Amino acid sequence: MARPRPLHLRDSSVTIASTALGNGGLNLFCLDCHHHARWTPAALAAAEPPARKLWDFKRRRKCSRCGARGSTDRVYLTSFVVWTGAWDHRPPNPTPPQLWPT
């Protein structure tokens, strides 16, 4: 029996809005020069439109140290969750106006 094919980021429907509203950020890591960039939820909300998919976000980036393109496999994308110290104080269903002005 064949193994299921892993989901590639370009096939995913995860957006900047769903990541930032879930209190998540993104790490970009360059495999060529080991440069690391961290995007917090606030930085994502300020820099990107909410409907942009993560694959498009990664594809548009390039390493500021060596110039490796995000559209290649030389730039690695991971996500993280920002811990606020108390999960009880998070709104149960955050809405886009909390991050993006209307």
Compact summary:
The chain is α+β, with helices and mostly antiparallel strands. The chain has 3 helices and 3 strands. The mean pLDDT is 80.
Structure characterization notes:
By secondary structure, the chain is of the alpha+beta class. It is built from 3 helices and 3 strands, in the order H-E-E-H-H-E. A hairpin with a 5-residue loop joins strand 1 and strand 2 (36-39). The longest helix has 7 residues, at 41-47. The mean pLDDT is 80.
Task: Please render the helix and strand layout as text.
Blueprint: H1 16-21, E1 24-30, E2 36-39, H2 41-47, H3 54-60, E3 75-81
Antiparallel strand pairs: 1-2, 1-3
- Give me the strand/helix succession: HEEHHE
Unreliable spans are: none
Helix content: 10-25%
CATH architecture of the domain at 13-81: Single Sheet
- The total count of strands amounts to 3
Q: If you average the pLDDT, what whole number results?
A: 80
Share of residues in strands: 15-25%
Radius of gyration: 15 Å
Question: In CATH, what is the class of the domain at 13-81?
Answer: Mainly Beta
CATH topology of the domain at 13-81: Rubrerythrin, domain 2
Determine the number of helices (DSSP H or I, runs of at least 4 residues): 3
Largest sheet: 3 strands, antiparallel
Cα separation of the termini = 50 Å
Which word captures the global form?
A: globular
Q: Give the helix/strand class.
A: alpha+beta
